[in-house]
């Protein structure tokens, strides 16, 4: 293999291989494939068991246990004809016959019946439990139908998935149709990506001279419902909120409820390397004086609560039912602290130390901002945003519908047991719940349960625009910000610096939706998400000290905090080696290449992100002031070899990016390609749009921008070739 230095002509050839292999809709297809391939099973595992117990004081107690196991999606999609025949179909046939392009779901189910003796109140029936119980009946059912899910055209489960562009024509499909949409009742529907704030990240804002640090905490696995938590500074007092607890709770009481009683223990979780706490006579500055004044006022305000039991009782009084005894109140508060307080850190016991450190971290950030040592966080920073693609939207809907299916099955089981009838699997599983639920959401665009229309999001599913080819591509790459169109705030609508390379700067509608409806840039890719367990294992091997093993007295500012998906994993004193090691793993394919590795030297933090919905773009990797490629010039091969890698917005801010190959000779570090990835596929065809600032002067199917292509680099060195030449093509709703 001949390895040589990259040239400007090579970048265009590499871009051609990128569009040929990945296409413009890879983010939609990859998101859906991930939903069907992994997310379906994860959601089933969250709600996999139904257990019903019948009690009788004279007879043995019977226990019925139903478990959902492996779930299957049948390939290819099929329909049931009027004569009962099941037949596979193609997208073309579904369109012509006004049908819905869906595939049936099947699931393996095991049912066990057990008995607890009235004399021996001992469990039950499973071979995994002690033999005190008696197992008297057990059945397994294979591939039981539970409903159908819609299939995205050209996805891995589509009938045309493995066909090349030449073969799809024989199935009645256009060779230039990338897919990325659904077919419901013969109508083509597209799911519009929804923009939202990221979860598990601390943001500090101010409102009406009140500063607060907030986080939307959500578990990496399990329910994606985020639990908001904030710490607020009112005067000199710091208070916080807890889910299901009325009113604000002083932070000192919350620390004591977590088991940190002494003032020194509490302050050591908030202030790092504070020699004043150690009793040393040191000169302190105005900031330290103000911090001690604020925290001293907080401690004095909570002086009456001096132990863990009292603190939990204080919290329980504000949430438990009126008249509950003290033990019940403490139990209620304990449950809230374990399951509802910062659930992204964990929902089991023995995590009080981790949660206390994270609470102290939030307070530290809040004090730095409120006392002028750090700027307020920017709500519109694109690194703090996530895009819910079709996979995330479908998984949220499936989670809701599957829970409803489980609840209905449990009710049917209960009735059968009470009436002495045998439980019939075919009657108990209502397949219409999933099938009709998905069909309703896609047909109407109201994303949610049909019975809860007021809680649904409107306009998520839209009829695909087929006015012309470019308008179709534009519609499939659209992003919506779900806030009121009548809002007076200008900032959410304005172009932000961090949109560079991720969002088209010109393609947005006029009128009320201006700036709220955007389009992805040509080379922008949305992360699908991956499990962080493997990265955590590497960090443990490389000497990252776990928070539970860290003594407060030894904590030091010289340590670098390590976060994985917003969870404070631990601290290290070899940040450079860890970042370099992670980058090597990323470039060699040991960990997924969409992982973000951010070394924020100013904050002394390493933030590793593997979650879904992060906008990122590909960049050339520069080593020894050169970009080396082989003669194949294949995008996929270059990614596999670590010569091109993906960077998201936050990682870009900690990387050095050159704007052209020519600049690389004068600058050091990474590489960017040609500068048209900052514009959308539609806008890249506009006439001299890089010289026209008004959307009124741009004739396009929706809007426009310039024809630049940016290929950027990751890690520490990047380059970008700017190409100001534009293809002069007119596209509008009246011109084609």
Automatic annotation (TrEMBL):
It is an enzyme of class 2 (transferase). One of its GO terms (cellular component) is DNA-directed RNA polymerase complex. Its EC number is 2.7.7.6. Residues 669-688 have a biased composition (Low complexity). GO terms for biological process: DNA-templated transcription. InterPro entries: DNA-dir_RNA_pol_su2, RNA_pol_bsu_protrusion, RNA_pol_Rpb2_2, RNA_pol_Rpb2_3, RNA_pol_Rpb2_4, RNA_pol_Rpb2_5. It holds the Pfam family RNA_pol_Rpb2_4. Residues 204-388, 462-526, 562-623, 635-684 form the RNA polymerase Rpb2 domain. The keyword Isomerase does not apply. Keywords: DNA-directed RNA polymerase, Nucleotidyltransferase, Transcription, Transferase. Residues 23-435 form the RNA polymerase beta subunit protrusion domain. Gene3D superfamilies: 3.90.1100.10. Residues 668-688 are annotated as: Disordered. One of its GO terms (molecular function) is ribonucleoside binding. The keyword Coiled coil does not apply. NCBIfam families: PRK09606.1. Belongs to the RNA polymerase beta chain family. This is DNA-directed RNA polymerase. It comes from Edhazardia aedis (strain USNM 41457).
